[in-house]
C-alpha cells in the first residue's frame, strides 16, 4: 500500500517519530504512541524467549530493538528496519533470504505467537489464583443477562391485558377487544372438597400473576374451605395455591410483595377474624393476626393496613400487627364499613348502620389524616346505605337507593358528588335504579350500573357528566346485579349476574355508549377485574 497516495508509510513513520520524541508532557496521541511502543516491546521480548525455547536459531533479530535506539524510519537500507517490518507481518524481505528460509520463518513465527499466547494466558490465570485472596478488583464485571422467569410470580413485569371474570365454576380471562376467552381455570380443581357451590371472592391481577381468593361453601350453616391461588396471567397455569383455615373469606389485597387475606370466624357468639400475610412469590404464610372484631375490607397504604371492621376503622402496622390508630363507632347494628379510599394522604370511609330509633339503614362518610387519624370532616347522616364509592378529581362519588312508591321490588337511586375538601355535596342526580356499585370515572364521565328501575324489571349502565351530573347516555343490561364497572382502554366493562336465571353476562361498551361486545356466562358471575 506504500504507492497509494492516501496511505504513505513514510509520512506515518515520521509522525510516529515525532510523537515518540516529543516533550516531557505528552498529549493524548503521544501517550497512546508511547504506550503502544511499550506494549510492542513486551510482546517482542516474549517472542524472543519463545523463539529460543523452540530451538529455531539464535538469529532472531528481536534483541536488536532498532526502535529503542531512535533509528530513523526513513533509513530504508537499515537491516534493523527490515527486521522491524518483518515482525509486523509486512512482505519486505532481507537480501539473500531464499523462499525456503522465508517459509520456515513464517511457520516458526506462527508457532511462536501461539505458544506465547498460551504462556501469557497461563501466567494471567496463575496470578489471578495466587493473588485472589490478597486483592479485590475495584471494577465489578458486568452482570450476566438472565432469562425471564416464567414459572414464578413477577409483580413488576407487564402482561397482555385481559378481563378476568369469576363465576361459580371458572375464572376466565377474556380478550378485552373481542370478549373471546383466552384461557379458563376450573376453580373446583383448587379446592379439596367438591361441592355444588364455589365462589370467587376477589381477583387481583398484578404483574404476570392473577391472585384469586376463592372458597367452597360446604354447608348452609357457614362451613367454608378457602384457598388463595396464584395463576400465570398469560396461560392460566398455577404458580402456587395455599389452603387457609376453614373460615369465611372477606377480602384480599396485594402490596409490598405480600398477599393479605382477611377471614371471618363463623358460628361464634362474638365477632372474630384473622388476617393472613402470604409471600406473593411462593404462597407461604409469613404472619397472621387475630382480632375480636370482624375485619371486612382492607386497603394498604405506606406500610399500614386500613381495615373497615364491625367496630369502625382500624389502622394496623402491616409489619408487626400493632394498631397505629382507630376510630370506633357505636351507632347501631349491623355495622358495615366500606373499603377505605386513600388519596393524597387522606382516608375516606363510609359507615353504614341500622338506626336504633327507626330501624332504618343509615350512613355517613368521614375523612381522616392517614398517618395520625385526625378527623378532617364528617358528612351529615345519609338516608340509606353507601355500598361503595370512588374518589376522583377532588370529588367523592357514590350512589344511594330508595323504594319507589312503597314497592319493595322497585328501586330508584340518587348519584351524589361530594367535595373532598370539606365533605359538602356539589350535586345530586336522580337515576333509574339502585346505584349500589362504585361508579367508574374516566375523561370527566361517571359510569354507574343501576338495578331494578321504576318498574322493577330493568337494569342499565348510565353515563353522567362528572362535573354537573347531567345524563349523557344509558344502555340496557341483563336483569340482575352488576359488579363494579371498570374503564380501561376507552371501554367500560361491567359484569352482571342474573337473579332469576343463575347465569351471567359480561359487557364492553365504548365511551360513547356503543356496545363493543357481550359475552355470556353459564354460571353466576361474582367478581371481575381488568388489567
UniProtKB/TrEMBL annotation:
This protein's record includes keyword Membrane: yes
Signal peptide location: none
A Pfam entry, by short name: PQQ_2
Residue ranges of domain Pyrrolo-quinoline quinone repeat in the record: 168-409
Assigned keywords, A-Z: Membrane, Transmembrane, Transmembrane helix
Transmembrane segments annotated in the record for this chain: 103-127
PANTHER family: CELL SURFACE PROTEIN (PTHR34512), OUTER MEMBRANE PROTEIN ASSEMBLY FACTOR BAMB (PTHR34512:SF30)
Protein name per its UniProtKB record: Pyrrolo-quinoline quinone repeat domain-containing protein
